[in-house]
Amino acid sequence: MTAGPGVAGSAAPPHRAALAVLAGACGLFALLQLGVATLLPQIQEAFGVSGSEAAWVVTGHLLVGCVATPVVSRFGDLYGRRAVMLCVLAVVAVASVVSALTGSFTVLLVARLVQGVAGGLFPLCVGLLREGFPQRSLSGPSGLLSASFGTGGGVGIVLAGMFGGGLPAVRWLFAAAALLAVVLLVAGASVLPETPRRPATRIDIPGLLLLGTVSTCLLLALTRYGQEGLGSVTGAALLAAAAAGCALLLRVERRSPEPVLDMRLMSRRPLLCLNLVSLLTGLVMFQIGVLAPALVAAPRDTGYGLGAGGAVLTLVMLPMQLGALSGGLLSGWLRESGRLTARAVMGTSTALFAAGAVVFAVLPSGAGGLALGTALNGLATGLLGGAMAELLVQASPTGATAVTVGLNGVLRNLGGAFGVQVSSMVLAVAGGASSHPSATAYHALFTGSAVLALVAVGAAVAFPRSPAPRQDVPVPPGHTSRPIRPTT
């Protein structure tokens, strides 16, 4: 595959192998996020920890991903996206091997934090699509990347069904992640294209540290409230620290030449709408992804649990991953064929997120109702992924695509982290001395998810029909996008 030195539109389509590697990287990203979230009950059982402690296996991973996403994106500018992606895959492979072999929850948690660097895979993939693919070909490839989320997340569910949960399912999930990372590393070194290096790029270290500190304080506060009740003094102190840190973060970011939270970009209507959609749908997606397996594992005497193992978990959760797979492919086809615009696809997906939460809130407990709810959630995830990538590229000012895609990924991870941790806190508080919360707690969580998804629908509708990016944002030297010459 070659490309001439002309405009981007003259570049030849990339080799299919390169696109397959990018899709595999997105699948690995989903496996480490949604796949692991599905097995939280098994992790809790295998390592003998509480639900709030097990939740940090997902929450901590997402939190590190919030910080790692902009760092990895900046490194992609500095050293080339191909080289940085290969480094990230190597780190993920090592951390996955450790996760598969350890018998200690502490070691597992540390390895999961290291795996958080995988949060940078998606913006790297989008950047490679942006610079390695013609603009007219973006819809199809971005839809394929979105579809790969269903494939990656489904691995954890299949393993749970094969091994019936417990430690074997957890070990095989991380072994699969390690194997996939190694395969992608070897293949990527051969087929991924080079990208330009931009030595003028800077990393906003103070902003990243403050963002990580504020998010950690908020999530730890939720954990303390879940453990000690709503009157927790420690939780209140952590919330106060988070508020002070947030004020300082805003002040630092206004003065930073290349802030991780660019207020000027975030305040623009198109990007404000897209970021709000990602934040809220990330929360809803992970909340449902965590609560549905919990309902499957809960005993029947609770009145809502199915008291079932791996086979029923597969029946309930696999529709979510199949929905994500089909939704991603459908998203690319609808946009590439001109049947629906990316804006219309985004609006449809947010409505499906709301519909899935409503199904969980109103239908009686049962495998059929849970499967329908997860299928809607997965279909919404697949539809949104490809459309979001295209809309971010359209709405980004010249030279700011990497920044806006990275920030959007940060907010999605933050939404997911809060979705998991809020769910754990509410269930812990509602459970009290009992080991299982009441059905009312689940109903309240799903109702809240439906309300937040409806707010996301409003944000999608508010997105302008013609989000032509303005060109008046100062762009540092070396930040302009230009055609690249692939290596193969």
Automatic annotation (TrEMBL):
Signal peptide coordinates: none
Record's keyword terms, sorted: Antibiotic resistance, Membrane, Transmembrane, Transmembrane helix, Transport
Localization in the cell: Cell membrane
Annotated transmembrane regions: 19-42, 54-72, 84-103, 109-129, 141-163, 169-193, 205-223, 229-250, 271-298, 304-330, 342-363, 369-393, 414-435, 441-463
Residue span, Major facilitator superfamily (MFS) profile domain: 18-467
Coarse class of the protein's main subcellular location: membrane
Pfam families for this protein: MFS_1
Region Disordered, residue ranges: 467-488
Membrane topology: Multi-pass membrane protein
Protein name as it appears in the record: MFS transporter
